[in-house]
């Protein structure tokens, strides 16, 4: 298996998923509560919400479903989601090691781009809050009106690589979900899985992770040793 050090050392840019590797976005504003808001709105607008969607706790799943089946309501669902993400970003708990990774990579001249299914506005609020914006090259985030382009589609990864000024195969994506790994592989990028819990290790490996870590601090330590 490729070592983590080799993955970082041979990558010309780091693409970072936001919720998980950078912060626990919904630590203070739980995602299931946002999903409930979206469901309530859809039902108020007389949308038929099938039983599987009534039990979903991930609001992004509902957003994608709205785009597929009730596109006339998508812009308002996006507004609920974005407003909720901004509220969450103001209170989100930082992931230990993430800020150090971002700062050290930036200081060494290695571009760092946030690649996320969340909104640009929420990412910007969080980066400003932690004084990290100057260390970020850019943000590749959910595109309004196009939930179909969220990961696991490769679009956001390819866009992130372009923002970094690199080809995708010169980048490494660090993410905490199988969809991150799948998106990276589709784009041709290498990928590191961040497993917040042990049960996620095999899921990330099975989705194609080149390496799996359980600590962003480890990634940050290696990044500080890289000389560009």
What distance separates the N and C termini?
22 Å
Low-confidence stretches: none
**Mean of pLDDT:** 95
In total, the number of domains comes to 2
- Rounded to the nearest angstrom, the radius of gyration is 17 Å
Can you tell me the CATH superfamily of the largest domain?
HAD superfamily/HAD-like
Quaternary: single chain
Our count of helices gives 11
The CATH architecture of the largest domain comes to: 3-Layer(aba) Sandwich
Q: Could you estimate the helical fraction of the residues in percent?
A: 40-55%
Which descriptors apply to this entry?
globular, Rossmann fold, two-stranded antiparallel ribbon, 228 residues, 48% helix, 8 strands, 6-stranded parallel sheet, single chain, alpha/beta
